[in-house]
Amino acid sequence: MYAYVARRMITGVLMLILMSMITFVLFFASPVDPGRFACGKNCSPALIKQVDKAFGYDKSVVVQWKDFAVGVFKGRQYPEDPSLRKSAPELVSDCHAPCLGYSQVNLINVTTELKDKIPISGSIAVAAFLMWIIGGVGLGTIAALTKGSLIDRGLVGTSLVFYAFPTFWIGLFLLEFPAIKWGLVPIPNYISIADGGLWGWASNLFLPALTLALFYMAGYVRMTRAFVLESMSEDYLRTAKSKGLAPRKVLFKHTMRAALTPIVTMAGLDLASVLGGAVITETVFNYNGLGKLAVDSIATFDLPTVVGLVLLLAAFVIVANIVVDILYAFIDPRVRLG
Amino acid sequence: MTSFLSVRDLVVHFPTIDGVVKATEGLSYDLERGKTLGIVGESGSGKSVSSAAILGLHRGTNAKVSGEILLEDVDLLTLSDEEMRLRRGRDVAMIFQDPLSAMHPYYTIGNQIAEAYRVHNDVSRKAAKARAVEMLDRVGIPQPDRRVNDYPHQFSGGMRQRAMIAMGLINDPGLLIADEPTTALDVTVQAQILDLLQDLQREFNSAIIIITHDLGVVAEMADDVLVMYAGRAVEFGPCKEILTHPEMPYTWGLLSSVPDVKGDTDARLIPIKGNPPSLLNLPPGCAFEPRCTHSDKVPGNLCRTEVPDLLPGNRGGVHTKRCHLANSDTIYQREILPEIAPELVEDPS
Question: Which of residues 226-245 of A touch B (CB under 8 A)?
Answer without folding.
Answer: 234-236, 238-245
